[in-house]
Automatic annotation (TrEMBL):
It comes from Ottowia thiooxydans. Residues 164-243 form the Signal transduction histidine kinase internal region domain. It holds the Pfam family His_kinase. InterPro entries: Bact_2-comp_sensor_kinase, HATPase_C_sf, Sig_transdc_His_kin_internal. GO terms for molecular function: protein histidine kinase activity. Its EC number is 2.7.13.3. This is Two-component system LytT family sensor kinase.
Amino acid sequence: MEEANDGIGSFGKALRRATLRLSLLYWACMFVADSILGYFINIDPIDSAPLKVVLFSLSALMTYAMSLVLFRLRRYSFTQKALLCFGMTAIAAPIFTGIDFLNYAICEYPEPVKFDKLYAAYMLIEGASMMFGWSCLFMALLYNFEVRDRERRLAAVREEALTAQMQALRYQVNPHFLFNTLNSIAGLIEEGAATRAERMVQSLSNFLRTSLALDPMLDVALAEELRLQQDYLAIERERYADRMDFVVDVPEQMHHAMVPSLLLQPLIENAIKHGVGQSLEHTQIRIWARRRNESLCMAVENTRYPNAARFTSPEGLGIGLRNVAERIRVRFGDAGAFRIDAADGTRFRVEIELPWRTA
């Protein structure tokens, strides 16, 4: 297919290999079919085999040339390519008939051979059928390869986008969170609460060090993910000491389960923003995980403030939860799930379900 000159690399190489295999199969089938048909019209398939081998071998070369033309002009519209197939068939069919007649004349030499118009007409129809049949078959093959190539490219683009998003998440620190944390530390120092300020600094240091060291494209043990989120929650608890606490309810035997890194971070940020940040009442944040058959179910819950808006889907929330839902969908497909539950009005829960996997 001359893929190097066309600049399509592996696509052209794969298509050329497939074309050669398909051509071999196609003309082998034509050989068998023509031999069977000849048998019923009193043509000995054994005696005619050498002629057919020559005829179909040269025809295979013609159809390969036709395929090359269609490949070169693959950007044309479907109608243009259909007309091109008709045109090339109109040229190739007389050549097919001429090769057959020449074959016969060589075999009968030095005896003269009379040109039989009726037989030539049959051969012309047979040649046109074979040539046009190949054109349609190659068009189907070409479309199949183009669709698969587009799917591969689209998957690669999606993967690159997801990688970029995850890499951005690796270095993302909410500026408001960092600003408020530093202000809180400064306030604690001014109040003389050195112990609390020291705890807050230590938690902030642990959180930043761990989150920046993680590769967001790799999975981590659930225990490691929980440690990171506990550092984050410890910072927020120091900020909201009078109206926030958190509970982590995860059995120890589940700590070795593998989860995508930083998956819980947006869920916890959302719980703080919409739970603690918008209520003067005491808010509890609860993280729990359970194994259900071959699935790992995790959830982040927060006490619901009285006048909270009733969200029922990730589209009703911020970009963080939408990204988590999309990340689960892209990574796990139907094996993953993202659910929001706020039916009872007292608690808001975001639950995710992943396939159970261990290191």
